[in-house]
Design goal:
alpha/beta, two-stranded antiparallel sheet, 6 helices, 11 strands
Amino acid sequence: MVYLFLAEGFEEIEALTPVDVLRRAGIPIKTVAIGPEKTVLGSRKVPVVADILFGEVEPDGVDMIILPGGQPGADHLYESEELRRIVRFSFEKNRILAAICAAPLVLGRLGLLEGKKATCYPGYEDNLKGAEVFPEKAVVCDGKIVTARGPGAASEFAFKLVELLADKEKADSIRRAMLF
């Protein structure tokens, strides 16, 4: 199962684009509210109703974790001890970790980008502890870690996730159907 985590102040495009694209590809994905309620307010004040609450996540069933950026959403993700725990657990189990915009700060602050290639929203590079940062790249994939720059990279980010979970042919098929 793919889990995309929503914290108050998330960037709507970065959260909903991967959900939409993965569902078009037939890949099971659930949105997860970090807080006590399923309705989570994005950075542009768009309320989104998550599929489940954090307590319903099955750590052993994680295939991929997606962390959307936006502020203060990315900071709220990092502040969640439960989220940090499941991210570390998933990293140790060699699951795919994907983060966009400011959210790679979660991976960087946890030391999970050490020796990896990564990108992020301009100005957050110092949070990518130990990473080789590619600020000009929209999406960077290094093994089981995928990072992306920001809202403008949301579609490319989502297509890369489909490629990793299914294959390039499926990603290209969805890309064409969406007229990208």
